[in-house]
């Protein structure tokens, strides 16, 4: 017999409740007015009446309330273990993928250095043998260090395709790059943001007699500056910020890949072989050039004036690539720096040595370091305004 039909004294303290599935209970409690529907509702204004006139007790209401309470606990009880396992697995997968990509890149750069060191003597001997027979005699004037740098570039190009294959890079999307409808505006803005501060600094240095105008301008040299300002940014940005940084960014992190690529970018431009020419070139001459280049880190003034500036420039270029998800702004900045520095060196010559404040050009020294920081701030402000304004 149902508990609600028994006399009040014979009712159980715990009325019988039918077994409800959680989804049925959830449906009941979300039904309209299922919890608040009274039995024999009183007239309006009877809320403050005495207890005999209050809403009568109903077992059905109590049963419904107990059911709804259990249903709420069943529906909204959190089970975080599954989510935590999924998140942990995802983080572990990203970390493992990042470690694999980092290992591939490390092996790639080691292969470049070793391959370039072994290839450089072959290029040197071959070029001088050809020049000795009267074919391209101009090759005889180049020293071993020039062939060493060319050998590094050749090894980097030859090993690039295997790196992309083992890294499963099949398109720009795999490197975190996408189409940029503002590419021409980004290139122009990058050139202006890098050229204007450098040329302003150059004019100030001439006014302070740190530099003076040259009496003769060698126009073929200016042509080389233009060629470098056009070609070098495309090559280096595609390699450093496009491929290397794109592979490292697949870990889901940004700071560590940006720092790593900037250190690599600075090291490649900072490391230079010995200025003295060796009369004898052997199979180990390439490795000797590497050792002499690394020895440059032992000079604190040179590191502060050159490496720090190159590192900051690398960070700015990487930041431009990450913020725009394209290479065009970084290409514009890079082209502007090469053009401004090369043009100023073509127009003026240094009157005094001012290390570590100023080096051989406007891209070396503490002063260029500050100018690069100003360019970074201006770039950030421009991007904030440009991307916020309607197209």
Query: What topology, given as strand order, has the largest sheet?
Result: 1-2
Report the major sheet. Answer: 2 strands, antiparallel
> Quick check: average pLDDT?
80
Outline, from the CA principal axes?
A: globular
SS element count, helices: 11
The SS-based structural class is mainly alpha
- Unreliable stretches: 4-55, 74-81
The counted number of beta strands is 2
Rg result: 36 Å
Query: How far is the N terminus from the C terminus?
Result: 76 Å
Give the ordered list of helices and strands: HHHHHEHHHHHEH
Number of domains: 3
What amount of the residues lies in strands?
under 5%
Percent helix range: 55-70%
Could you characterize the architecture of this molecule?
This protein is an all-alpha fold. It folds into three domains: 3-76, no CATH class; 93-168, no CATH class; 179-388, no CATH class. The protein has helices at 22-29, 59-76, 80-132, 144-166, 183-207, 219-248, 255-270, 285-294, 300-324, 328-347, 366-388, and strands at 211-213, 348-350. Helix 5 (183-207) packs parallel to helix 10 (328-347) and helix 7 crosses helix 9. The longest helix has 53 residues, at 80-132. The termini are far apart. Residues 4-55 and 74-81 have low confidence and may be disordered.
